[in-house]
Amino acid sequence: VTQSAYTVSTVPNPRTGYGGFVSDPDKNLTNTELQELNEKLLQLEKDSSAEFAIVILNSIGESTPKDFAV
Known about the structure:
Layout: H1 14-17, E1 22-23, H2 31-47, E2 54-55, H3 65-69
Parallel strand pairs: 1-2
């Protein structure tokens, strides 16, 4: 679902959606790129105690990235 601007509550959660790490609702990445990133991040999670997510959005409106992430 492509939106003109996202809020924290409207960003799809990849962990609950399909078990991945990358949220790319505007389809900026190819399926191959998305799969490769998720595979690398899954291995990193297995090898460490790190928890993370990657969010790729076309717009967060007037928010700054720091304010948006909080």
